[in-house]
Design goal:
Order of helices and strands: HHHHHH
CATH superfamily: Cytochrome c-like domain
Distance between the termini: 44 Å
Largest sheet: none
Helix content: 40-55%
Strand content: under 5%
Number of helices: 6
Number of strands: 0
Radius of gyration: 15 Å
CATH class: Mainly Alpha
Shape: globular
Length: 104
């Protein structure tokens, strides 16, 4: 029984709608609706927020790093940590990936 529950938990697909709602609630003020780093608060920040729509961001940041920044924050910036359940974190990272440029 435990093995079935563990397998189910590990194989669960991220929920993009959940990720979108978390992003809307916690990220858009700085990162903007489309993830360009142009949210209403961004102009007042000492450094621009990450631009999730920029291919160069995704060349530097893998999912492990993005998860760590979300949960723990980014030292030297105003990006604070947002601890959350693993399923919520997976869904948020999956949603962030949808903001990246699509390969041509």
């Amino acid at each position: 029984m435990l093995a079935v529950l563990l397998f189910t938990a590990l194989s669960a697909e991220p929920d993009l709608e959940l990720g979108r709602s978390i992003y809307a609630a916690k990220c858009t003020a700085c990162h903007g609706v489309s993830g360009k780093g142009d949210g209403p608060v961004s102009r007042a920040l000492p450094q621009p927020p990450a631009d999730f729509s920029d291919v160069s961001y995704w060349k530097r940041a893998d999912d492990k790093l993005v998860r760590a920044i979300i949960v723990s924050g980014k030292p030297g910036t105003v990006m604070r940590g947002f601890p959350m359940k693993p399923a919520h974190l997976d869904s948020l990272v999956a949603y962030l990936r949808t903001l990246a440029p699509k390969p041509e």
